[in-house]
């Protein structure tokens, strides 16, 4: 019985040590509450829980707070536009910070974003990358300080 209990505890420890998917990693990080709510409103949770891999340039709650409340509320109610905005933050593949190269990268939305190194600060369009390499089992999250808006 003691061996069985030890085996169960070990199995639980191994399971909890594994990385979560993109959505759960965003939830665990604690500063992506608005993003997670937006993913739910756009019905994109299952997509970002999928096999991927995905690289998500994830706006923090502070980034969403820069958008005027009325405009953000309207965006959250317009599923088509919200989906366009959110998928503009996602790139196919798992790109760790050390592998990021300056240039244009096509997003899942279809348009390209521009990655640049401005005096040692990595930028995505006009957004500063605040934190890199939040690893998930189906990709990686890089926190950004501004919500990117497609054309």
UniProtKB/TrEMBL annotation:
Span of the signal peptide: 1-19
GO cellular component term of the entry, any: extracellular space
Ranges where the FAS1 domain occurs: 19-148
Record key words, sorted: Signal
Superkingdom, natural source: Bacteria
Pfam families: Fasciclin (PF02469)
PANTHER family, A to Z: FI19380P1, PERIOSTIN-RELATED
SUPFAM superfamilies listed in its UniProt record: FAS1 domain
Name of the featured protein: FAS1 domain-containing protein
Species of the source: Polynucleobacter arcticus
């Amino acid at each position: 019985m003691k061996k069985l209990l030890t085996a169960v505890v070990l199995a639980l420890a191994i399971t909890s040590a594994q990385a979560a998917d993109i959505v759960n990693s965003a939830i665990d990080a604690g500063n992506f509450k608005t993003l997670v709510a937006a993913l739910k409103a756009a019905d994109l949770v299952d997509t970002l829980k999928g096999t991927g891999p995905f690289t998500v340039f994830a706006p923090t709650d502070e980034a969403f707070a820069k958008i005027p409340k009325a405009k953000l509320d309207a965006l959250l109610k317009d599923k088509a536009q919200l989906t366009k905005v959110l998928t503009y933050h996602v790139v196919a593949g798992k790109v760790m910070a050390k592998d990021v190269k300056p240039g244009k990268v096509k997003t899942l939305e279809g348009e390209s974003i521009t990655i640049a190194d401005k005096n040692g600060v990595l930028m995505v369009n006009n957004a500063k990358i605040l934190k890199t390499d939040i690893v998930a089992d189906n990709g990686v999250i890089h926190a950004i300080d501004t919500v990117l808006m497609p054309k």
